[in-house]
Design brief:
42% helix; Helicase, Ruva Protein, domain 3; alpha/beta; 214 residues; five-stranded mixed sheet; Dna Topoisomerase Vi A Subunit, Chain: A, domain 2; DNA recombination
């Protein structure tokens, strides 16, 4: 019998271990074999280290909030990007979720602000415009018009998939009456690809070389 088969058929020595494996294996990309290895590793570590991991996860889940302006994950009411005086408030990059913010930030090529939609329009999954943070984006832009903090450009930083293009098209129709420049990241990103998986150089160049959305 192979080692893999042995793990699959293993009768756990402890119900506690079995429960831990069941929960860990619910994480994306982690099977029962990997979950068992992680559970046994945690069991062998110093108890305090394991408790620190548990406390960090609990704190993350119970204390993490979303920025009231851009909807990015935050520790406070406003995130660190929105409160950073060195950021260019006249430019807002619209993205699907926090993973895209992290991907763009890692390029060090963008100094504007963000707006996290919380998803993209996908009729097949039952996700429509009303399920996204679109109205708050429009309100955010309209409220600042005519002030020193006015938004002059909106970058559509959405993955070049069918759903991403549908969302970009819808946003363009809603944004045009607000008289802001609408651009999109250059197509150095493969069609059908996700921003979070693009390498930093390609994504950085796509941000810098953005083009007017038509």
């Amino acid at each position: 019998m192979s080692r893999s088969s042995f793990v699959t058929l293993l009768n756990y020595p402890s119900k506690l271990i079995e429960n831990a494996v069941e929960e860990i294996s619910k994480l994306p990309g982690i099977g029962k074999k990997t979950a068992l290895r992680m559970a046994l590793h945690l069991l062998k570590r110093d108890e305090r280290q394991t408790l620190q991991l548990s406390e960090a996860i609990i704190a993350m889940r119970t204390k993490t909030q979303y920025c009231r302006q851009c909807h990015n994950i935050s520790d406070e009411e406003l995130c660190q990007i929105c409160t950073n005086p060195k950021r260019d408030e006249s430019v807002v990059c619209v993205v699907e979720d926090t993973r895209d913010v992290l991907a763009i930030e890692n390029t060090s090529q963008y100094r504007g602000l963000y707006h996290v939609l919380g998803g993209i329009i996908s009729p097949l999954e039952g996700i429509g415009p009303n399920d996204l943070k679109i109205e708050s984006l429009l309100k955010r832009i309209s409220e600042k018009q005519g002030t020193d903090l006015a938004v002059k450009e909106v970058i559509l930083g959405l993955s070049p998939t069918m759903e991403g293009d549908t969302t970009a098209f819808y946003l363009t129709k809603r944004l045009k009456p607000l008289n802001v420049k609408i651009t999109t990241i250059a197509r150095g990103i493969p069609i059908g690809g996700d921003l979070e998986y693009a390498d930093e150089i390609t994504l950085g160049r796509s941000i810098v070389s953005r083009i007017v959305y038509e």
